[in-house]
Each structure stands twice: as C-alpha cells, then as structure tokens.
Specification:
By secondary structure, the protein is α/β, with parallel strands linked by helices. Helix content is about 45%, strand content about 15%. A six-stranded parallel sheet has the order 1-11-10-9-12-13, with helices on both faces. It has a five-stranded parallel sheet with strand order 6-5-4-7-8, with helices on both faces.
Length: about 425
Amino acid sequence: MNIRIESTATDSGRQLVAGLLDRFTTPDTECRRSVSEIIDRVRREGDRAVIDYTRRFDAPELEIGGLKVSEGEFERAAGQVSAEFLDTLRFAADRIRAFHEREMEDSWFLTRDDGTITGRMVRPVDSAGLYVPGGQGGSTPLVSSVLMNGIPAAIAGVGRRVMMTPPDREGHVNPALLMAAREVGIDEVFKAGSAWAIAALAWGTEQVPAVDVIVGPGNRFVTEAKRQVMGRVRIDMIAGPSEVLILADETAEPAFIAADMLAQAEHDPQALALLITTSSEIAEATVHRLREQLDGLGRRDIALASLEQRGAILLVRDLAEAVELANRIAIEHLELQVADPWQWLPAIRHAGAIFLGPHTPEAAGDYVAGPNHVLPTMGTARISSALGVETFLKKSSVISYSRAALLADADHIQRLAGLEGLGAHARSVAIRVGRGG
C-alpha cells in the first residue's frame, strides 16, 4: 500500500493542499445528459417509465402493480428480521429522536406599543421524499439512512413521507429497510432507484406522489437528478464521496487513526481519508497500522484504491496550523485525536461533524450517537449544515399594523417607495391614512 506523506512546508505538500481546497466536482456531460433524458421521460410517461427503468436495471420481472410495497410485504418483513436487529433499530432510533427533538423551532412574535405585531410562523412542508440506496443489490440495507432522513421529517411534522429504494432482482425490498420505515412511521415505500426515482418524487406519477423536499444519499446519477430538480423541490444537499480528516498530535494512537481512515476508505474508491499530524512518528506508525488492518478487510480492494488514489498524510508545524488547515479544507467528518480536544473545539469553524477524543470513532456518529450523519462534503461545510429538522420546515413572516402604527410609519414607507419609483406602493399607504389617493 502506498499513501502519500507530505509536509506542508514543501512544494509538493502545498500542491496537495491546493488540490484538497479545490475538490468540489460537477458531473460529466454524459451523466447530465442521461439524467435529463430520464427526468423528461418520467415527466411524460409516469409509472410506465419508472417501471421500464426498474426492469432494465434492477428487477426484470417487476410488474407495474408491484411498484408500491404492499401491506403484506410489510407483514412478511416483520417475520424475517431478528429480535436483536429490532432491538438495535429501536436503540438507534431513540438516540436520533432525542437529539433531533432539540432542533425543533418555535414560531415567535414581537409587539410594539403602537399595536404593531410582527413575527415568524414555522410550519412543516406538506410532503417529503426519502431516497435510500439499494446497497449492493439489497444485500447491505442502509438502515441508518432511513432513520437519519425519516426521523427529522417526522419531528418537523411532515404529513406525508414517501420512501424510494431500488428492489433486488426478484423485486423485493430488504426486510430490514421495511422495518426501519415502519419504525419512523413511513407507510408508502416504492421500488425504484436512481434518477428515475428522484424524477418521480419531483414530478409525481400515477402512483408516486409529488413531494416538496427530497433527501437521501445516492450515486452520481441520483446526485445529478437532485441537482436538476432543485428549485422545483428543496433538496438536502449536493453530496460527494464520504470524507474524514483526523487531526493528531504525538499522544494519538496510530491503530485508532488507521481504523477510522479505513472506515471511510471502504465506502468508495473516491472516498477521502486524510491525516494531519504534528508528529512524523505518528505518520509512519499510522501507515504501518493501515497495512496491518487492510489484511482481512471485507472491502479491502475498495479501501486500498481509496487510500492509494486519494488518501494522504500531511505533516504540520503545530496544532494551530493543523486546525487552520482543517478549517480551510472544511471536511465532512473531522476527528480531533489530540491531548485536549475541547481546548481546540472553539477554533473549529468549518466541519460537517466534529468527533472529540480517541474513543469517539466516526462510526458512532454514523449510527447511534444521535446527530445526523447526512453531512456536507467537498468543502461545502463552509456554507452548509447537517440535515436536520429545519430541512423540512419553512418560515412565514407575520405582520399586523394598527391604524396608529401605520400613521406613525407612513412617511417613512412613502419616502422609500418614492425613492424606488413605486408610486402605487406609496398610494397604498396614503389612501389608508387619509393623505391622498
């Protein structure tokens, strides 16, 4: 295994950093064109297009009447999962609910002595679509995606929540996914994946309802479809490959660092696993541990490709430089494996999620810690936040004037309207206060 070790004081190190700072990517022309054609066809043909794509790529024998998961399928799924799985499912769901309940926003109002009332009214969107990838043909069900997307929508009060997930070749959805859907209160599940599933959610078909918000991870075709329907619907984010950046000083444990780098690298050959350290000894020991831990890893080839193609270890002068570099990189997952991580937390400005100390693996955040694991990637943590309850909320301003309040404000309103050349605006005030019109 070959992974780059570079010092930020060298030209090659500076070039590596420059590449990390400019890692936002857009889809290729062929992908954009293919997705556009899929969306257009689903808009025109509805269920017929969705079932045709699903037969072509996922379940060759699926009938149009089987597009929606039936109550019988939910009932059979309940008997196909273990009691241990259900216990873990509820454990994770309870943790995620407890965290996200704190995110719920309240409506609020301000009053003035003249009778003016202004405020903000917080309301959920009417409907949301949750996309859940198939996970190796349904053999590795992404249960955590159902929980992380479905629970905040439920807490927000979204009345209709629809889940889309590709079926296996026999036209079935993994029972673990169906039980996760039931756990978060989702009863509408459709067997469709990729760009055609996103198009169905955005525009609606004979069976699939059009929704207001679409969330959930996926491949480049899913991501591009979300980008193309954005505006008609709200989306969670444009996401890229998963990322981790570990900041380590001389007190860090190389075996822990290596384990967490591999936990990201096994996602995808394009996943990004980085270490920034003040210690050359930690850097070399981490490489040794990476080689050891790769052996016997079920997704070894994927992890190895990720580390060799995109992984890197950067040597810096001190932790102050490490933290500032981390802020510039704005990573999805940031781990502080340093002697006093809480000391450095106030200096972190840009990261999707921050993991403090040697006993806080990123995997805990993926599953049971509570915070959402849908996080900004490709440097967008500079401007974006994790998915949360607010993703499914919208705010309306509320304004109420008394006659006395309008009289008090009339001159100011008319003056600004006049400056902007909007005479009807000014007249709409004047006619109410008896000053013309």
